[in-house]
Amino acid sequence: MPINVPKELPASDALKQEKIFVMDEDRARTQDIRPLNILILNLMPEKERTELQLLRLLGNTPLQVNISFLRTATHRPSHVSPHHLDNFYTTFEEAKNRRFDGLIITGAPIEHLDFEDVTYWDELTEIMDWAAANVTSTLHICWGAQAGLYYHYGVDKYELPEKYFGIYEHHISDPTVKLVHGFDDVFHAPHSRYTSVSREAIDANPDLTLLSVSEQGAPFIIMSGDGKNIMITGHMEYDAGTLAEEYERDHSRGVATAVPENYFPNDDVNREPPHRWRSHSHLLFSNWLNYYVYQATPFEWD
Predict the structure, then answer these.
(1) Which GO terms describe its molecular function (predicted)?
(2) What are the binding residues for substrate?
């Protein structure tokens, strides 16, 4: 949230030069406030777990947020009960006549497929087209980030030689950008994916800004110039134990996944991994909600 200061306070100029969000008394008196309406397109198989992870982060701000969950009509998930979907989820046909302040498109375990081979690709592109005119800002996560980069900006994914799996250090290119306000120069984030996107292709696109890369140089936080599309290639929403559960699940299926890098203490799978990215997860979501949704969305859409 912004700080409200007297209009002529000398410190306000210095704060503005540091890109700290300052609101003077005149604007504060005339600012209308209402709940934010956020739509979550949940493409993850274990929907109830993803709901909890995202709601935990969206609920940690002073803003009042109304949440709606969206599911695909062209694909019926098998890892969640029909009762849960029918009671708590809506379809795009039911939601498309509304406008939303923010949209979150989650990841999905379908990286091995070309985008056009995904059963709900046409539906997803229709949602992304609709969001351009009916959503203030969209946050894309992991596969959802790759889908957004491909559809909106022509940046394709490519297969990695092995699963990019673990907790990695990341660096910020410009700490004055509001999305990463408060971030440390180096911070940790989880990744779990078999594909990546080209840093060169992102750098070459004038509509995109690369805000953060991993220690290996992999793109992590990418933002469009207007802030309407924000792509996060990892999983900042993950709990401390999520990668451990993925590791165990892979091995139970006969997939020889390596131990997640920089995750278990001393690479001992019997030890509990620390949650080293929690604070930056909350910062990322609160910055997105404040600067790119709340401060940018109209009070009345019409």
Answers:
(1) homoserine O-acetyltransferase activity; homoserine O-succinyltransferase activity
(2) 163, 192, 249
Show me where the domains of the chain are located.
35-294
Active-site positions?
Answer: 142, 235, 237
**β-bridge pairing 157-172 and 186-197:** antiparallel
Q: Which two tokens stand for residue 92?
A: 């795009």
Cβ–Cβ under 8 Å, residues 267 and 175: no
In whole angstroms, what is the distance from residue 268 CA to residue 264 CA? 6
Which class does domain 35-294 fall in? Answer: alpha beta
CA distance 130 to 125: 8
Structure tokens at 134: 């009916």
User: pLDDT averaged over the chain?
Assistant: 90
Rounded to two decimals, the pTM is 0.89
Pairing mode, strands 186-197 and 208-214: unpaired
Contacts of the segment 210-217: beta carbons below 8 A, 24+ positions apart: 210/173, 211/172, 211/173, 211/174, 211/177, 211/179, 211/180, 212/170, 212/171, 212/172, 212/173, 212/180, 213/170, 213/171, 213/173, 214/168, 214/169, 214/170, 214/189, 215/168, 215/169, 215/170, 215/171, 216/168
Query: Alpha-carbon distance 213 to 157, whole Å?
Result: 16
Residues in the annotated binding site: 163, 192, 249
